[in-house]
Structures are given as structure tokens and as C-alpha cells.
Amino acid sequence: MENKGVTAVDRAFSIIECFGPGDSSLSLQTLAARTGLNKATIIRLIASLEKAGCMVRRAHGEYALGSALLRFGSVYQSSFHLADSLMPILRDLVRQCGETAAFFVRDGDMRICLHRVETASVLRLHLREGEARPLLPGGTGMVLLAFSGEPGAESAQIRDDHFVINIGGREAEISSVAAPVLQPHGVLVGTVSITGPTAKFTDGKADAFVRHVLPAAAELTRLCGGDPSPFHESLSRL
User: How far is CA 225 from CA 10, 33, 183, 195, 233, in A?
Assistant: First the structure.
């Protein structure tokens, strides 16, 4: 049986979800427009949200999110371990693509492989978890640079696409597809990638890998509290 939830709770959360980046406070009229609820209902719901510390009323009559939400976020962050969600996603990528999946983070001018799942392919990549490599000329490094604010047309294109295909950039026989994992406001966490023989990435074959990597990056971004919608938009343009 489908769980339809509690209407009042759903409506209360719809008020909280009205707030986005840059919305320090919102008027009652704006909340009504964004939720589709009438003002009397919103006022009643806000009274409960204020009691729970999830919303406050500013002196000028507008409403802002309350400090309790920050506390809940801190509790979530302390209990959330990315690796717990990351490893099953990497294993799924290997199963779907038949190539090696990995997760990298940036450390200055280096990229560090935090997690990887190898394929049974004859091509074995000589890179261990915890090992550091220069950012460039690899695809994962290109993504890490782009989403760290690197200037230039190439980085701008990667930020627009939310992925990069790197054909033989580091070694001629090895190619990759990489996409970022983001926190709220587009803050970079790391990059997820698929790497394999260049022959499997040429002649338009890389798009098949992109169609798996983008949803994986979107899901990891969602789990980190980021916005997954740009990944889905990029996927729809393929």
C-alpha cells in the first residue's frame, strides 16, 4: 500500500522547501505563491514550525529558516559516511559499464583516489586507494579543477556539461568519463569516474558511459545535500 503521508506535515515541509540559495527571508505573499497554500493555512503551519525552532519571524514581518534546521543538518553530517553510499554506487557502475569505477578528491595540485572498484577486464590500472597523482592531464583532474573555479573556456564547458570525456589524455591506451559530486551551492566534494581501454571510448561509445556516470554523480550529489537537477538536465541533452 502506498504511504501517502500526513497532509499537514507535507504542507509544512513545502514551506521549508520554498527557501533556496539567496533567500534569507520570504514574505507571506511569496510563501503563498510558491506553495499554492492560502495565507491562513501558512500562518497556522508556521506557528508549529516556529515552536520547533524551524522557522522565525523577522522584525520586518518576513519569515526565515530557524536554527533547529542547522542542528538537524549537523546531526546528519556527523552520522553520514559517504563511503557507505559510495561503494555500492561504484560497484553498480562496474556492473553496468564493465570498467573500473573510482572516486577522487582534490589535494592542492594532486588528485587522491579515495575509493575504487576494479573490473575483471584484462586492463588493470596501476592505481591504489589513497594514492595521489597530478591533476592533469586526467579527466578526473579536469573536473576537480573546473568545479574549483578554474577559469577558461574548457572549464566553463565542463561546468555546463557536468561531465568530461577524456580520450587518452594521460596514457594513450586509457580513457575515462568523470563527473563531479557536489554539496549545496555547488561546493565540490570530489569526482566519480569510469576508466577503461581507449578503444571502448572512441567512435561515440563514450556516451554510453556518460549515461551511467551522470546518474551516479547525481545520486551522490543528492546524498551530500546538493542539487542533482543539473546532472539530469545534462543527461537529457545527450
Answer: 19, 25, 6, 26, 18
Q: Which of 132, 114, 124, 130 is nearest to 193 (CA)?
A: 114
Tell me the domain boundaries of the chain: 7-77, 80-236
Residues 43-80 as b/e (b if ≥16 CB within 10 A, e otherwise) read eebbeebeeeebbbeeeeebbebbeebeeeeeeeeeee
Superfamily of domain 80-236: GAF domain (3.30.450.40)
Read off the pLDDT of residues 117-167 as tens digits, 9 standing for 90 and up.
988 665 556 677 778 889 998 899 999 999 999 999 999 999 999 999 999
pLDDT of residue 80: 56
Beta bridge partners of 60: none
Q: Could you please report the per-residue DSSP string of 175-208?
A: EEEEEEEE-GGG-EEEEEEEEEEGGGTTTTTHHH
Q: Between 148 and 81, name the one with better pLDDT.
A: 148
Report the CATH fold assignment for 7-77.
Arc Repressor Mutant, subunit A (1.10.10)
pLDDT category at 181 given cuts 50, 70, 90 is very high
Residue with more model confidence, 127 or 221: 221
